[in-house]
Here is the input.
Amino acid sequence: MLNRGLVEGVVCVQNTEEDRFQPMPIIARTPEEILAARVNKPTLSPNLSVLEQVERSGMKRLLVIGVGCQIQALRSVEKQLGLEKLYVLGTPCVDNVTRAGLQKFLETTSRSPHTVVHYEFMQDFRVHFKHEDGSVETVPFFGLKTNQLKDVFAPSCMSCFDYVNSLADLVVGYMGAPFGWQWIVVRNDRGQAMLDLGMDQLETQPVMSKGDRHNAVQQSIPAYDKGITLPMWAAKLMGVVIDKIGPRGLEYARFSIDSHFTRNYLYVKRHHSEKLEAHVPEYAKRIVEQYDLPD
Here is the structure.
């Protein structure tokens, strides 16, 4: 889009020179600046802090890449930015942390926390860590030290019900795809136009869905609530079993959404009960009603 002149700048996130995981939002004006933003920075990032620069620059055509909370805020001020065209490329998102929270996660989970250059919670029910030497370490979800990690997630993430980034034009992530593939959601004509630009470079397959998420979600509720951590041998065994017979494709996406919505509903109910009814969207309430929740 930048090369073709469709936009004059792209809001994306590089990292600081001092810290590979410290986010640094920028307005990229060259392909090189965009490519320098590769690799996720799974920490809270003030992406919209650059909007003041957009206003001062006189820029009229902009692409913004962001997660749900950032895009919600962007849409609320969109009309004040003076743009002729705004394109929004989103990713699904859940459980961001502060930089200190990220360090605690790495130190309690990875065998070599200081050499991790990238990690992701993947749809094979494992966390994949990539290290500086190119090696990949995997840790099953069920082996995470939940009892030590319950407090690292940002309160904003614990009360979020927009995992799927519903206000973006085009969303790219892995949550509704088989392992090794990405999942693309086109929400409107602008999103379709964005996708069409690169469609000839993509290999595609039909969306698939297998398994039943409900039992896995129901089991995850008390496991997280009570901070249960399995021995690693049991966690690995459970990971193998669920990977073979558990939810996949769209059903994995539903598992991820349902498990986080039930967790977040409980968080809001316990910490902000006076706001529960107004804060939780109707679609989230319908999802949560499918499950038995503790008080």
The two ends are 49 Å apart (CA to CA). Residues 250-271 form the longest helix (22 residues). The chain has twelve helices and eleven strands. The longest strand covers residues 9-15.
